[in-house]
């Protein structure tokens, strides 16, 4: 089955191209619980929606929640992420909070596919997070015999 982005994203892509506006696309991983449920995705959506502007859109996709923030530049998108992060600390794990990613149209992609590829590239999950660097203590030099 092929997933296609919601109509709102396609409309916003067309509108932003036509009028030269930027927008921010955010992915918030919510995962599924062991029984295949939404793992609180509705709570996350409700919490996030209460903090967004009326023009912003929220939709579920797979194990994530997506936010579309029209007419936002990078600084505005980062400010919105900072605003929603605190309430999300009560609903998401640390790994999920770290895996929240965002991209800016058109700088990070000009098509929906390019934007989702950029989201994938920016996402950090426990399996893709680099292991902490371990520095071994120096070994004493032993003279060669």
Summarize the SSE layout with pairings.
Blueprint: H1 7-19, E1 23-29, H2 41-49, E2 57-61, E3 64-70, H3 74-88, H4 94-98, E4 101-105, H5 112-122
Antiparallel strand pairs: 1-3, 1-4, 2-3
Name of the CATH class: Alpha Beta
Rounded Rg: 19 Å
Mean pLDDT: 82
Give the second-level CATH assignment, the architecture: 2-Layer Sandwich
Strand content: 15-25%
Number of separate strands: 4
- Helix-strand category: alpha+beta
Helix content range = 25-40%
Say what the CATH topology is. Alpha-Beta Plaits
Give the overall form. globular
How large is the count of helical segments?
A: 5
Question: What letter string, H or E per element, gives the SSE order?
Answer: HEHEEHHEH
How many domains comprise the coordinates? 1
Give a description of the structure:
The protein is α+β, with helices and mostly antiparallel strands and 145 residues long. It has a single domain, classed as Alpha-Beta Plaits. The chain has five helices and four strands; from the N terminus they run αβαββααβα. It has a four-stranded antiparallel sheet, with helices on both faces. A hairpin with a 2-residue loop joins strand 2 and strand 3. The protein is globular, with a radius of gyration of 19 Å.
Core attributes:
alpha+beta, 17% strand, 145 residues, Alpha-Beta Plaits, four-stranded antiparallel β-sheet, 37% helix
Summarize the structure.
With about 140 residues, the protein is α+β, with helices and mostly antiparallel strands.
